[in-house]
Amino acid sequence: MLSSSINAFMAAHHKQCDELFAQAEKSVADGHWDSGLQEWQAFAEELEKHFSREEQILFPEFEQATGMTSGPTQMMRMEHEQMRALVNEINKAGDNKDLDQFLALTETLMITMQQHNMKEEQILYPMTDQSLTNVADIIERMNQT
Amino acid sequence: MNIRGLSLETIPPIFTPFRFFLSAPLSGILAAILLIYSGTDIWLTRWNINNLALTHLLTIGFMLIVMLGALYQFIPVMTGQLIPGSKKLASSIHIMISLGVLTLVTGFLSHSRIFFILALFFLGIGLCLFAGSLLPLLIARLQNQLIVFLLRILYLVLMVTLGLGLYMLLAHAVPSLEIDFRNYTDLHVLWGLAGWIVLIIMAISSQVIPMFYVTPEFSRNYLKMLSLAILITLVSLSLYQGGYIKALEVLLTLELLIFVVYTLHLIGQRKRKIADVTIYFFRLSLVSLLVGIIIWWLGRYLAQQTFYFLLAIVMIYGLAISAITGMLHKIAAFLIFLHLQKLSLSRPTAISLVPNMKQVISSQNSWIQFMLFLLSYAFILVSVFFPQLTVLAGVFMLLSFSWLAYCLFQAIRRYQKIQLEILALPEMKMSI
To answer: I need a surface site. Which of B141, B210, B248, B367 has the fewest CB within 10 A?
Structure first.
């Protein structure tokens, strides 16, 4: 049974990403590089899936419905780029097995991600739930991505 | 909700929160110097003027100031709206409250009326400006979020605490206004310790613990009811005299216990298990509240002064200042990263210059902070029983606040240096 609001659906996915993140970070911190990096890839893929759900489906729908093309969604796209840059750097630290660098960057990504999620859950998703008429359809399409 | 009024771009300039964060440890340093200077005298009576001065350096000079800076930063993130009049007003409020705490402390130490009058003027204006600028946001029809609810209760409780304080200050400034200081002080302390401090920790925990440590969310209804129950209990305790007092005290104790046990339980369930210094600060804070509750019930068997001192130390230094110190390390590093990364977006080659959070404040420096804080806290508590250790306690407190000041100042210096380096790079025109 899918969530009835975009906020609930997307917030649950944030939580899922957080859990994958925590697992990968913990494994690496404990020195289990092999399993840790596999878990890290699983997280990075899920995060990318989340971004594309927004960039390909949710944001265009919102922009079309409200005519707001240069406002909040543009800001969120920029923050996605910031997080992608951090993920790339973490991948490099993983390749070099540089533990301090890996953990310093995951901490930075974690906080960046959380403040981004907070803005989405507190402001942007409620805006989309309010302004879009085809919420169920959008959730269904995002779920299939 | 009018969606067009909301913006996700509303981050205040870095110095809006930082001016508060940078000045707060300086009040802590002054408090530590006062503790060293007073020596064993500090433990003579709770009415000792050095004691009053020290307490207000910590509560207004440190806690309130950090809280204001944090509100300026987080209210826009949570609500999509800046606190009205943000930049200029924020600096005026900061200056007024800082002058207010300095004149208040000088007033206590010199017992000179002129300083009380000045303190009343500065604090009165500073607090009115702050209260007035926040009010429209808090009464606006915001989303029905837990944090907004907690902030509204926090606001009410803070206003009562400060209102009682200002009223006593007025009585100091105008001696003909004879008031029962003991009664008003007890109320002021009750609202400050069991209300304001507890609600700050509740508000921070409800946001930060699930996010940073990947724990289950706090139950929304449950924290709303709990904070409302605390407010109602505090009002009842203030209005009723006599028979009901014991029952209300039991009720308040239960409310606080539920909060501590519930929060510690959530922390225990966290999925993000890597060693992180802030989680130790949080645990120390919550355990302090637990110890505070125990002191509240068992401390009556101690000498009355000892009881008051222990309670104040555990609630102010242990519960509030520990969590705030831990959070400052994280927030400061993050804000610097955030602002530099934002600056580098339009300069593609600049991204390699942006430091990650641990390069702004290293893990090692945060651990040193925790150890210094822990030592100072332990020595302050022990010196209540062994006053000969007071000076040593003061030295550790001085080291802890100085270390915090050092970490924050070196972080902002680094920000300024890298900002210049980034600005020197060629800018790419963006279509946004």
So the answer is: B141
